[in-house]
Amino acid sequence: MKYLILGAGPAGLAFANRLLQNGERDFLVLEQEDRAGGLCRSEEVDGSPLDIGGGHFLDVRNPEVLDFLFPFMDKSEWDLYERDSRIVVNGNVINSPIEANIWQMKLTDQVEYLKSIAVAGCNLGEEMPEKFVDWIFWKLGSKIAEDYMIPYNQKMFGKDLNALGTYWLNKLPNVSFDETLISCLERKAYGTQPGHAQFYYPKKYGYGELWKRMADALGDRIVYQTKAETVDFDACSVNHLYKADKIITTIPWKNIDTLAGIPDEQKQRIDRLRYSSVVITYQSEYLDTEAHWIYYPDLTLPYHRILVRHNFCPNSKGVWTETNLNRFSEQDNAGKQYFINDFAYPLNTMGKQEDMAALLSWAKTKNVYGLGRWGEWQHYNSDVVVARAMQLADEMTGNV
User: Fold this and answer.
1) From residue 187, how far is each of 2, 82, 177, 197, 371 by CA, in Å?
2) Angle at 39 between CA 95 and CA 371, to 5 degrees
3) Theoretical Cys-Cys bridge with 383: which of 35, 59, 126, 323, CB 3.0 to 4.6 Å?
4) How do the pLDDT tens digits run along the chain, 400 residues long?
């Protein structure tokens, strides 16, 4: 075939459907599971859909992506929400991001945070450090670092935070003492909302419904329950059975058992890649809040965030928690319904950008292309993944 696509998650499904739109039908998708959707799959739990990969929503910011997706699931089938995300820190429940909403804390805490921000390294003109933990203190001040950023990231990614790079944190704004002080005095937030300031969520289904419909549109061009066990770069084949002009891999590089024809240098790059695993657990208890999701840096709690599904999934109840697999206890969750996601988040470790750039560049010479969160090993949201899949399909079919 001309194109062999590994993985029927958002990246693989978007790429395949874009090929169809561009008039290309000579392709096949291989999917390890018995159904499509990847991390965006949904299950019915306690009478309502639950997204088994955690909180996945459709961002509104890219109209080209929306125009591509809405024919599969019409815009009338979605509700539009204003993001309401909150943080529980030191007994304060405030809106996210923390640096813009210190004014919502107790007055004594506001004073301590302001004092900390005033002497943050970036505000004193100190040289930017290279290690993750030092960088957080330098960028945000000791209070935000100690009370929120350090414990939250430990819960989400693991204790060895200095293994992470700082290149992915540059989007964090400088926390200005003057702006924060004015915010506290005027009792209103400053700055801009983070991603998903507005988002769509299906009215009657979980987010997985969108990807199910996109898979259905491909008909028999998806082969399920077929793991890509062997990728042969010289033969441009998979499992010694499927051969293609081009292979597009959207699956984790570390989840391929055998990589044939790959130099040791590139194997070492893959060996250095790191990821975290999470468990999504359903809790039937009602949580009295209007928030969509809530972050918990408290290290005494196993989970790092809660998603309140009755606030964005109509006619549902309960919440689901997201917990790093290393902090999850099966015994403590006996009798509860939970879903383990072995590959949840690619970690932004030091040197990863250089390793991935070199790996993808070499693989391309063999007509193998990495795409999406796992193919590119980047923490992309689904809307970004779709945009990148559309772009790659357009480039390959000459529809640019």
Assistant:
1) 59, 20, 15, 20, 44
2) 105
3) 59
4) 999 999 999 999 999 999 999 999 999 999 999 999 999 999 999 999 999 998 889 999 999 999 999 999 999 999 999 999 999 999 999 999 898 999 999 999 999 999 999 999 999 999 999 899 999 999 999 999 999 999 999 999 998 999 999 888 877 777 889 999 999 999 998 765 555 689 999 999 999 999 999 999 999 999 999 999 999 999 999 999 999 999 999 999 999 999 999 999 999 999 999 999 999 999 998 999 999 999 999 999 999 999 999 999 988 989 999 999 999 999 989 989 999 999 999 999 999 999 999 999 999 999 999 999 999 999 999 999 999 999 999 999 998 7
Torsion of CA 144, 145, 149, 154, to 10 degrees: -150
Placement of tokens 């793991």 in the chain: 227
With contact defined as beta carbons under 8 Å apart, do 396 and 367 qualify?
Answer: no
* φ, ψ at 372 (rounded to 5°): 90, -170
What count of other Cβ atoms lies within 10 Å of the Cβ of residue 365?
Answer: 8
> Selecting from 3.50.50.60, 2.40.290.10, 3.10.180.10, 3.40.50.1110, what CATH number does the domain 3-83+200-397 have?
3.50.50.60
Residues in the chain: 400
Of the candidates 82, 2, 44, the one whose C-alpha atom is nearest the C-alpha of residue 208 is: 44
Domain range list for the chain: 3-83+200-397, 98-186
Using alpha carbons only, give the angle 89, 83, 46 rounded to the nearest 5 degrees.
Answer: 85
Q: What is the DSSP string of 97-164?
A: SGGG-GGGS-HHHHHHHHHHHHT-HHHHTPPPPSSHHHHHHHHH-HHHIIIIIHHHHHHHH-S-GGGB
Asked if residue 370 lies in contact with residue 240, where contact means CB atoms within 8 angstroms, the answer is no
Read off the pTM: 0.95
